[in-house]
Every structure is written in C-alpha cells, then in structure tokens.
C-alpha cells in the first residue's frame, strides 16, 4: 500500500477528518473512530511504515513516549479510567487492520468489553528455554 492509499497518511495530511489530541513534527494522536472505551486514542508516526519492521527506531521510541504521556492524560482527564492498555498489532495475524503502524492507547475499567482470549496456561521451563535459545540466536544475527 502506498502512502496515498493509507487512511492514516490521509489523516496525517489533513485529507481525512480526525479528532486530534496530540500533534508534533513526528507523531499524531487522534481519537479512534471505533473506540473500545471512551478515550481510546491512536498514536501514529507521520511517516508511513506498514509494520514494525518498516519503522525506524527513533519513530518507534517517539510513539511509545507519546503513548505513555497520553496514558497520564487519560488517567487525569476525568474519563472512566482504572487502567490503561497500550496495544500494537503488527501484521494481519495479529489483527492489524490498517497497515500503518499505530499504537492503541485506551482506558480500562471493570466490566468494559475488551478481552484477549488465549491459552494462558503455564509452560514447562524446557519449552521456554528452547524458545529463548532460538530468539537469542536470531537476535545475534540481527545485532551489528
């Protein structure tokens, strides 16, 4: 998908309407059109990056820093907020729907509707150690 076909790029350019909460040279944060809870925000880099692998480290750090700042804002806003989720889906299998990196920041409270269904059972140490070894080997090939 090119930048001119990306709805978040259109929002960044001002071609599509949004309710902006935060705006600087690198990052834009706006209200999610389909919020999980009132106050649900999206934090996006202003440069197009389809997924995390496409995002440079500086913009990634900035997205998370702004997300943290907006978490404090949500807690102090008077909106119902007993907790915060920071959620980033990277790839279709992770339920990414808009292929422009975006961090969801949304308030949580008892009885809200957001759920992640998973197999949360405890794993054997040998399984965890084997997975850790594979990841360490891969990490070693990526570090320069």
CATH superfamily: HIT-like
Beta percentage is 15-25%
Percent of residues in helices: 25-40%
Number of strands: 5
Q: Give the class-level CATH name.
A: Alpha Beta
List the helices and strands and how they pair.
Elements: H1 7-13, E1 20-23, E2 27-31, E3 41-45, H2 57-76, E4 83-87, E5 103-108, H3 125-142
Antiparallel strand pairs: 1-2, 2-3, 3-5, 4-5
What does this structure look like?
The protein has helices at 7-13, 57-76, 125-142, and strands at residues 20-23, 27-31, 41-45, 83-87, 103-108. Strands 1-2-3-5-4 form a five-stranded antiparallel β-sheet, with helices on one face. It contains three helices and five strands, in the order αβββαββα. The model has no long low-confidence stretch (mean pLDDT 95). The chain has one domain: 2-Layer Sandwich (HIT family, subunit A). The longest helix is centred in the middle third of the chain and has 20 residues, at 57-76.
Keywords:
HIT family, subunit A, 144 residues, 3 helices, 5-stranded antiparallel beta sheet, 5 strands
Summarize the structure.
The chain has helices at 7-13, 57-76, 125-142, and strands at 20-23, 27-31, 41-45, 83-87, 103-108. By secondary structure, the protein is an alpha+beta fold.
